[in-house]
Design a protein that fits this description.
With 296 residues, the protein is α+β, with helices and mostly antiparallel strands. It has 2 domains: 176 residues, Jelly Rolls, CATH 2.60.120.10; 101 residues, Arc Repressor Mutant, subunit A. The chain is built from 11 helices and 9 strands. Strands 1, 2, 3, 4, 5, 6, 7, 8 and 9 form a 9-stranded antiparallel beta sheet that branches. β5 and β6 form a beta hairpin. α4 runs antiparallel to α5 and α9 packs antiparallel against α10. The longest helix has 19 residues. The chain is elongated and about 100 Å long.
Amino acid sequence: MREQDREAAGWTRRQLDPGMGECRADQRQVEQGLLLVHSDYRPRLALVEPSKHDDAAGMVITIGLEGASGYITRDGEQLRFRGGHTTVTAFRHVSGERRFEANQRAAQLRVLVDEDALARYWPEGLISLLPDGGARQLAHAATTAASVLHARALLRATDPLAVHIGVLSLLAEQLRALRPAPATVPRWCDTDIAKLERVHALMQEQMAQDLTLDYLCAQAGLSLFKLKQGWRYRYNDSPQRTLLALRMQRAKLLLENGCQVAQAGWQTGYRHPPNFSAAFSRYFGYAPKTVGRAGA
């Protein structure tokens, strides 16, 4: 890209003393908290360059275009960046040194994402991503074909919107890889569904009995684990809460039709009226004796 085109596209250049070799870094602000940096170093002698982020936190996506470089934190942690590989690093209050070998080219494209920008794009992952202090390598792998295309386009792009889209595409690809895999949802066959519905029917038919989950499992031919897991899938609840809801709704209907409190409790599995009254009051927020024509 020509000098005037580079400046017109919003790039600013930082260049080391020519006596040190060809070492330059172009950067452009993509949006608040999102910075794109293209560095191209070929120092005559081994180069150590201080790097400080003492008051900042965020993430860096480094796409190695050619050669290699290193980074050593003040705590001694070492990171290595290589051509053809993408490295994702999270940092908080870190300082260290970037290191380049003599007469070796190291070209990289970096996306710097500060803490506020990360909070915009992945708020739920912010705590797990950022270390308490220092630097943490989150990923290091061969650069994908998609990232290669985005990087090439960004190096020649002049349109701000195209740059914005390209940078966000790189960020989205890396955040997708860092997100935990979704929990596997088990497949439930018709036979399993029928067993769950059998348990639901037993709850309604035999609620006057002292029903236990072990008894219901035995009657339907399900393990306790599969009953609980399947119940969440089929009814979006636990078996215990479903049974309680069925009992309370039946008891309320009985009371509304003139059944006495003790009788309503007995018919819904409560052998002791005080236990029934307490459960009913917790569920509905009022005592069973206040319903309909119920009597003690």
